[in-house]
Amino acid sequence: MSQALVVLSGGQDSTTCLYWALDHFGAGQVEAVTFDYGQRHRIELDCAARIAAQAGTPQTVLPINTFAVLGGNALTGRGIAVQAGVDAQTRLPNTFVPGRNLIFLTFAAALAYQRGFRNVVTGVTQTDYSGYPDCRQAAIQALEQTLRLGMEYAITIHTPLMFKSKADTVRLARVLGALPALADTHTCYNGVQPPCGECPACRLRAQGFAEAGITDPLIERFQHPAAPYS
Mind listing the pLDDT tens digit for each residue in 90-119? Predict the structure, then answer.
């Protein structure tokens, strides 16, 4: 039976993909990998651990401190505030970490190789890609081909959310039974809980739930802490 490794950040999209993988490949056939890359929103590491445990999925945490050393963006650089919009020169948001998804997927593929898995699942999406060029289908397809050639290994990168809007992703999470797990996810770029509600990630998440007509279980959790989402 096919086995899969899910890149699990602790966020909304990767958690939905974890449940997609469990549904697609079967319980006991899925593992998760989480990257500690010096991210500002480090609370997501704790979220990822709890989500993996709740799903009964083995999790590996890999440290990558190079991004923090490089800096230059609001997610790993010190003293850089998260800003809305894009840079006038690069046309990219200042939360873009150059090469992040490419590095993550390369390490995930290497771990999958060691495990004997031929499937890697990631939550990147081109429809709501927030201006990140390494979330586009063309970039992922090119990387998949490079990994196959470079490792002589038939690895497949699955992107179940690639052409889904945030509202579509919320609806998929409901179908997969992932909504309770989303109560423990983290999206806020400012790394705070309750989420700030103002950063681009918070606004995109809120818009998705609003368009889907579904209450965000994370917000529900903080509004009614004594009544867990079900």
Answer: 555 545 566 788 989 999 999 999 999 999
CA distance 214 to 178: 13
What are the sequence ranges of the domains in the chain? 4-223
Tokens of 93: 């948001």
Q: Decide which of 2.60.200.40, 3.40.50.300, 3.90.190.10, 3.40.50.620 is the CATH code for 4-223.
A: 3.40.50.620
Residues contacting residue 153 through CB under 8 Å, at least 6 positions apart: 109, 113, 118, 147
pTM over 0.85: yes
Longest dimension (CA), the chain: 52
> Quick one: tokens of 150?
């470079």
Pairing of β 156-158 and β 119-121 = parallel
